[in-house]
Each structure stands twice: as structure tokens, then as C-alpha cells.
Request: fold
Amino acid sequence: MIVSIVGATGFIGTWLAERLHREQGCALKLVVRSCDRLPHTWREAKDVTIYEADVATAGLRLKHWLVDSDVVYHLAGSPGVWFSYQNPIADARISVLGTVNLLEALRASGHGKIVLLSTCRVYSNLYDADEDTPTEPTSPYAAGKLAAESYTQLYGRRFGLRWTILRPSWVYGPRMVKNPIYDLALGFLDRRPVRLSISADSALDFIHVRDVVEALVRASGMSWDNLIVNVSSAQSVPLREVLAMMHRKFGYVVEVEHVSNNILSARVINDLARRLGWWPIVPLEQGIGETVEALRMDPARPQNL
Reply:
């Protein structure tokens, strides 16, 4: 099986590439913006081809790269909501123009399926949100993802392209960046105040990256074709509970500062994914422990800003 991953150097992309190549023996085509972020082991790996390009400007060059791919995973995107407010044009360029370029390449090649990684943030109400909940983006990031979804479905209707769209909740785990769990872990490791972008009274639906990768792998199957599927824990966990988990792990507390008093409450329903044979496996406290240890061992871990 030949699989292409667009955005292979990102948080989720690195995990997916490892799973598909090392555990399932897939031949990989990795489309990356810069090879500098790729480990040398990937550059020398058997059955791995690397293409360096900006997906927003690559155009039909993508057609020649992806022509024999059975599945194309579209994971390229901006780092998150915070980035989209600071750089809305860059966010739209990646999410929207990049998606259209990729869809055009797949249409021209006449082969393969696209699996698009979107976000639960497209929903108008994040509490008890299922796939039928109305969409109403509240950030440039979510607006770009919803536009990418619309284009993907359009190409499915108009050109018969096979597709699946996944809407994950708050993804966390080793190699993550900019997430409340990440911010808290950095603060505890460095014993200094943590600045949260939302109120500590918020409660979010956290899902481990390995569980998301499992959903991505399953989404390549025909039973997932032409479906939008939530990928979540379906549990609303207060940030104060996450803080308590950190306290138990480290044995001390740190001060928490709020950049915003905005209170988010999220619980994303995953019944459809469960009917398709997927469910979350990694317990939150175990996943937090893995994330903390990965950051502890990272000599280049950033400062908590």
C-alpha cells in the first residue's frame, strides 16, 4: 500500500508516519515544507520518498508526486487557534489554498482517497457536539478548516473523489505544542507560573495522539468513505482536574495565571466513530505522564510564554 502524508513533520504527522511505515509496512510519500525538520532516519529509510514543497503553491506538481497513492492524508495546517489570530492570512493560505491545490492534484490523478484532518472547533456549541451539530466557527483557524471541509465534499460530489473528514477534539501527547496540557507540563517542569489562554475553570475534551492516529488509519477504509467523524474521548475534563494530576505527579504546585477569563466547555460525542469500530484507549492520566516525560527528556524544550 502506498500512502502519502501532507504535513508529515507536524505533531500528528510524525506519529502517523511512524505507525504506517514501521508497524504496517506501508510505502510512504512525505510532502513537507522543509526537510530540515525531518529526522535523518527518514531520509535514509527504505520505501520512503520525500518531497519538499509548500502545498499552497505546489500546484499540479503534486499530481506527479501523488499519482499512485492509495490514500492521501492531509494534515498540513497552522499550529492552532492562537496562530490564526496572529496570522489569519497565513492560516487561510495553508488551510484553504493548500487544500484546493491538493484536491486538484487528486482530481487530475484520478486515483486515491483523501483523509482530511479538521477540528471540533467548527461547531457552534462544543458541549455534546455530534456530527449533526450546526457549524459556526469562532476563530480564523476553525473557519479555514470548515472551508477545507466544504471543498473536500464538493470535489467528492462533483468529481467522485473518495474522502473522509475527521474532527478531533483537543489532541495532546509527546511532541505536542501549545495546548493547556503542554503549558501546564512546562510550568511544572520549570517550577514557574503557567499562563493559560483560557480560564482554569474551563473543561475540555482531551484525546491522545495515538488514539487520533488509530482513527486516521481506520479512516482509510471504505466503511469510512464520505463521512465526517468526530474523534474524541467524549469526556469533559476540568482543567483544575488536569492541574491536580500534575500536582500528584510532581508533588508540588505552581501558580496559574489567566491571559483570558474565557471559559470553554467541551464534550464531543464520538458515537459514530464507535459504530465504525474505533474508540479511545489511552487514559488521560497515563497520557499526561507520557507527555511530561517526553518534555522532560527534550533538551530543546521551549520556554512557557
Summary: The chain has a mean pLDDT of 92. Residues 103 and 152 are 7 Å apart (CA to CA). The longest strand covers residues 162-168. The chain has eleven helices and 15 strands.
